[in-house]
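User: Modeling request: complex.
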Amino acid sequence: MITLSTRWESVRGSAIRDLLTLTARPDVLSLAGGLPGTDLLPRERIAEAAAVALAEPTSVQYGETAGLAGLRDVLAAHESQRCGRPIPSDRVVVTSGSQQALDLLARVLLDPGDVVVVEDPAYVGALQVFQAAGAALHPLPLDGDGMRVDVLAERLAVGLRPRLVHTVSSFHNPRGVTMAAPRRRELAALADRYGFLVVEDDPYGLLAFDGAPAVPVAAYGDRVVRLGSASKILAPALRVGWLTGPAQVCAAVERLKQCADLCTSSLTQSITTELLCDTAWFDAHLHRVRAATAARARTFTSAVAELLPQVTCSTPTGGMFCWLDFPEGTDTTALLPRALEHGVGFVPGSAFAVDAPLPTAARCCFASLPDADVREAVQRLADAVVA
Amino acid sequence: MITLSTRWESVRGSAIRDLLTLTARPDVLSLAGGLPGTDLLPRERIAEAAAVALAEPTSVQYGETAGLAGLRDVLAAHESQRCGRPIPSDRVVVTSGSQQALDLLARVLLDPGDVVVVEDPAYVGALQVFQAAGAALHPLPLDGDGMRVDVLAERLAVGLRPRLVHTVSSFHNPRGVTMAAPRRRELAALADRYGFLVVEDDPYGLLAFDGAPAVPVAAYGDRVVRLGSASKILAPALRVGWLTGPAQVCAAVERLKQCADLCTSSLTQSITTELLCDTAWFDAHLHRVRAATAARARTFTSAVAELLPQVTCSTPTGGMFCWLDFPEGTDTTALLPRALEHGVGFVPGSAFAVDAPLPTAARCCFASLPDADVREAVQRLADAVVA
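Assistant: Request completed. Predicted assembly structure:
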């Protein structure tokens, strides 16, 4: 018998995680995972970049904990452009995916019992990280313009004192919505007024179908830690994410990262650097990915309108996710096993719920499947609903 | 002003870490880092394996949190052979280097205040992880046969109740010693009797100069979590480590790894699988690395005997480290800046000290530098001593 730590035992397990592993069955068309389309990942270009990287002896050695200098430079240039002000390279820390950035942030910033404001519904990976850090989660509703920053302002006015406010600001996971510009400005101002930090988790921002990413929350204030990722714009297997933020936060995250995994792979960092510095290729690649993903989104939403007319479906403008709302009385958690029998997977709303149970909701990822399979997946879902 | 977590503020910084960054200066021959020789890393073979891996679409996608099935299989086969009993693949969790395995283990197993037995001197990365978890460190001395398991037995008999006992069992970092077989057996028996877990941290075991790695502590009992790494036998930039242990520990570590970084790179895991499965190549590669490293160790120890006759130097039988003991009255921490002025780096004993300050000791890594530079590095150190 082995005793686990008290803290760890208290982190809730995901009841549907086992069920979701079934979505990986070859006979299942999965709308469940948050995976970019495998067919859209630039595998040949990565192979070229790997060959170039591996001509350098240092590509297979340990690297500096904060990341390769060349990668920090190009990321700083990207972030400076996004935010409209210079962000120096020493304010960029490279992490093993942006998930690691979230985990390191929670560990350096939170004491057990600290209040963390999260969106409801929320990215499950963020909820797990904050729970593992012993935080007290405070859920905030979303609408079509993203986080209800007005509700946050009201609660702050009557005494709410969070350490962190977490937001997936663009093309929200799971809701698909993007925070409107006035709310971004207001959120940054509230952080300054009340002394909390905003964690702006932005893996999908560059996947705006119109090619015009939103101005980051970090453009409006200094108390914002911005997280980015190569997973959705290049490839998940690079395991390259990054964080920009106040110098003190960067220094603490770098020091904890040394404990956590010493450094991120020099090889995958070199590949990422090569791809991001090849501006002509990168711009064309992003254009291709956006166009293909937008087409999948259109196919998905038209198929839902046609085959599941009783379901309300969000209208994606970027990212990877559609949020479905089934008629009153539906239980999407009970629907999932039937859907799997019919060869389609999705994630029930309950998986993302912080406060409200969301029994009628479902998240569908339209980005993973080739266009031809998207309609078939919706057909199977419609069949499961009437079964 | 940003407040960091209380726990994090309490983790000691490394006073000499800033100084050690100076060892990366191009004019410095560094005996400081724990880096395998860049010239011994199989870069061309990795490039071939990368090209093979990247022919598969899944090589650039997310992978399962516990690791690629093919990699877990070959690691299970290796570990089964090392331990002399079958270890199933589902008892292997792939991590982002074995440093991540240490960190995840500490997080799932330790509550603040839990006692962790560490060797003194100890691997600094382990000390940092246990401190970050809030553990109470209990140091245990080493001698030429490794951890003084007899001293541990005495302390257990009078009431010491650790949750974990950490050991670098073969070619210790920093002492270079290997735990003798009777002590390994006794340590496993004590774990069974007193209910603690042994963390057998074994990145160097396969680097036995005579090609005969020691029988693992894990061969003698079930309450042992064994950590392995591709960093010293293939290349650090793969960031592939692994853990084998009790099912309950593997399950908890896998779940926390999902929080920590979702998964390790499918690409570097695929490369590692290819290299480990190419048995003829892998055996020949290990033979080359062992022979070259043994030659560097001989060059280092003869140079010390000739140029620093007043210094006692351990006799390496594998791994990467020599432990030097300077005459009474020497302060190696004060020597380091002088050594850097003379163009050579090392790590003062104080960096590894848990209890005793070890002012006369130094760790030198003989593996990083080409043979021709090893003697020159010792010459510079000798010059610094008389300066």
